[in-house]
Amino acid sequence: MSAPLSFRVLRLRLAQHGWRVLALAAFATAAAWVCHERGWLRIHEIEQQAYDQGLRLYAGDRPRSEQVVLLGIDDATLQGIRQNESYARSFGNYPYQRHLWAQIFTHLMEEGARAIVFDAVMDERASDEGNDWQFAEAIRSQNLPLSLGFTVVAGRAPLPAVEAVNRLPLPTPAASAASRHRAPDDVFASEVGAEVEQATALEGFVEAEGLGEHLEGFVEANGSEAQLEGFVDVADVGSASTEIVPSDAGAGLLRKAAAALAFPVTTEGLTLPSLEVLRAHGEAHSQNPVPPIPLLLEDVPAFGLVLMEEDPDGVLRRTRFAYRGVHNAYVTLPVAAAADLFEASSLHLEPGLLSLGERRIPVNADGTAELDYGGPWEQRFRAYSVLAALEDSVRKAQARESSNTAEVAWDRVIPEGAFRDRVVVVGGMSVGTADVRATPFGSQVPGFVKQATVLEGLLETGFITRTPLWVDLLITFLLSLLSVTLILTTRWTPLEVLWPVALFFGFFLVTGVFLRHGQVHLLTAMPVYAGELASLCAVAMNHLFASRDREHLRAAFSRFLTPSLVDELVEQNRLPTLDGESREISAFFSDIRGFSSFSERYQNDPQGLVRILNRYLTRVSEVLLEQGACLDKYIGDAVVCLFGAPVAMEDHALRACRGALAVREAVTALREEFAAEGLPDVYTRIGVNSAVMFVGNFGSSQLLDYTAIGDGMNLAARLEGANKHYGTLIMIGQRTRELAGDRIEVRELDAVRVAGKSEAVVVYELLALAGEASEAQRDAARRYEEALRLWRDQHFAEAGVALEALLQDHPHDGPSATLLERTREHLARPPVPFDPVVDLGK
Fold it and tell me: Which has fewest Cβ within 10 Å: 451, 550, 562, 813?
């Protein structure tokens, strides 16, 4: 029965400190939020570490991607091409001649690749322009579904504003070749290609003042003044105000570049991030796109930004999908590729949602998303070497030459079907390509793994999203509230030490479940910071605000109450005084039958009597304390205790009944032990009564005795003695019966009048708790109460017959024998007048 009492203590403590609990939780939450907003106490660093660890432990076992495969320039490729004389002569050293990629990409399409994403930029002409032409021709002739990257640099002039349109790949290679075939001496390849950078840079000089100064800087960066001819119109050279205007050809190239790189992006409720970069002294400069070589502007279906988007610690954890330039919007490389795969005409972003064609993907409220790497990249993606793909393409070509048929077989390096219906992401895999980055799963991860992860998220798996701030704050508050509540209510020193230590690990499990099963990033550091601070404040409150009155209570009542009841008394914050108070309680009296003769047996062995009596009192006291009793006193063999004082209990009557029944069971077992040991019997009678009594510390400031006085206390003692008259073990008063109600089973014994009282009181024999009485007890009680009714109606003969029949079935039923004796007396000498109340004082 200690658990309910402990719960009462916790409830009282929580009620007493409720406002302090809420205040501390709110304070800890606010402090943690400020740290999060200001970046104090390394909270962001801790958050990133917890997030990375959570990814590795809980979200690092995604199945291998079936949508995306990697084709990388690994160490084998770098060494293999360098050591193969034919390859080295044809493709050169890294970065390789572009006709290598024409050969590789053509082979991938023949192998059934769905699309190709090339994590590279081609913004400089090759030394041999024929290589550029071969690459562009392969794209045109094969209608390659290729997505190519482009970069941005600071200080470059922005591209002109255009109406962005997503140019989807043509449906067939034949249509592409027929509609867009060009000769090698086309104007894009010969005249314009060499000077696109100059034309792009010129836009920044429109209507500029100081021709000499600007022209000198431009020529220094881009070549001789002769190279400007045909791309700019210069007027009034040397004048104070000189206008530099791109020629029609240069302006046309700028518009073509803008049309190729810009992407239609719509937003609702958020703003795209700017491509601005901060320089020294807080000065911002815009970053603007560097267009690919002109040969590729119309032939490559999709272009996308290849920003790495590292966090301040250099780790790739999240991505944005589109950026805002000076005049146009630009999407990242994976988005450009996915848009073509979905045949999406535009990208739409709104808080919490990305829309690309028919695809709807949850993202963060600010339009970002966190990358779901799903484990080490070697386990997440199938990866193949560029050298292996090159070897396959060469072997396939050789097999065709020897067989003169389109369908040929050859000794494959890469298994057949490796690329079929999959998107192939091509990029640097070796450290030698200078494209390795840090992710939560490693410090040297190929950079194009990030592009593959974003693409996989767009195509199938989605992304990890942050919970809204209000959810993080709510969880932070609830964790703070739990921490304060535990520390303030339990006041258990081990918990004060262990809870702050276990807090991080326990909450880390919660955030891990969200990561694993919901792709949700629930903040870890802010709630844990708040919980730790709340715990520290609660511990301080426990130790700094301990009351001396409470310690006095503990000292005064620790001998009479169980520790949990002492705690409950303390938390009620009501210090008993010498004045006392009136309160309805239940009093318990017990006594051993025939203790006088019991004592005489041991008159020559007082130590033996003390041992037996202490054994008896210890057993009885233990079961009473378990029911919440306050031990009042021992009077020889008698035990006196109170229920409902000093600790207030609404169910004091029921507790007293439970205590009496528990004592009956304990004494029964003890009697058997004593009998086996040859010790005297300790048959015990019990009286319980509930009434308003005067309770308090009676005595002096030097010696206090907490007890109760009043008629109710006297009646409890009389009921204990009345058991002898009725042959019962436990007798309870009428008020106790009313308060306990149907939670106990009783037998009405009589209406009695005790010594010193004129009014009658109905008394009952306590049989058992509700539902626990035996059938024999219920049968005897029912038949006894019927006989008692007949006796009260003065049908003495019928009552006697009923009682005789009852005693035949229950020969040891004491109340029936007592009532039968009284009935026979009334038959022999009818009382005049008849009084149904038994006077126990006579």
Answer: 550
Whether 693 and 788 share a structural domain: no
**Coil, helix or strand for 651?**
coil
446 and 499 co-located in one domain: no
Say which CATH number the domain at 584 has: 3.30.70.1230
Q: Are 424 and 147 in contact (CB under 8 A)?
A: no
Domain membership of residue 282 (yes or no) is yes
Question: Residue 131 is part of which domain span?
Answer: 68-461
282: left (phi over 0), alpha (psi -120 to 50) or beta: left
Domain boundary among 767, 801, 833: 767
Q: Which of 748, 767, 786 finishes a domain?
A: 767
Q: What is the pLDDT of residues 251-279, one digit of tens each?
A: 788 899 999 999 999 999 999 999 987 66
Model confidence over 1-29: pLDDT tens digits?
444 446 766 777 777 778 889 999 999 99
Long-range contacts at 442-445 (CB < 8 A, ≥ 24 apart): 442/376, 442/377, 445/316, 445/377
- Please indicate, yes or no, if residue 139 is contained in any of the structural domains: yes
Two tokens, residue 45: 């660093």
Print burial letters for 686-717: b (CB count within 10 Å at least 16), e (below 16).
bbbbbbebebbbeeeeeebebbbeeebbbbbb
* Same structural domain, 241 and 275: yes
Whether 232 maps to a domain, the answer reads yes
- As a whole number of angstroms, the distance between CA 166 and CA 260 comes to 8
395's tokens = 């072997």
How many domains are there within the chain?
4
Residue 101 dihedral angles phi and psi, to the nearest 5° = -70, -30
What pLDDT is stored for residue 222 in this prediction? 41
- pLDDT > 70 fraction of the chain, expressed in percent and rounded: 83
Q: Are residues 44 and 111 in the same domain?
A: no
Residues 488 and 383 in one domain: no
- Per-residue pLDDT of 488-543, as tens digits, reads 888 788 888 899 889 988 898 889 889 988 899 999 999 999 999 999 999 888 77
Residue 546: the pLDDT is 54
Gyration radius of the chain over CA positions = 47
pTM of the shown model: 0.65
Cα dihedral 333, 336, 338, 341 sign: negative
Query: Tens digits of per-residue pLDDT, 431-462?
Result: 888 889 999 999 999 999 999 999 999 999 99
DSSP 510-563: HHHHHHHHH-EE--SHHHHHHHHHHHHHHHHHHHHS--HHHHHHHHHHTTTS-H
- Retrieve residue 428's tokens: 């640097």
Residue 672 has pLDDT above 70, yes or no: yes
pLDDT interval class at 127 (50, 70, 90): confident
Sign, CA dihedral 544-547-548-551, equals: negative
Is residue 52 located within the same domain as residue 196? no
Residue 502 resides in a domain: yes
Instruction: Give the whole-angstrom CA distance, residue 86 versus residue 89.
Output: 5
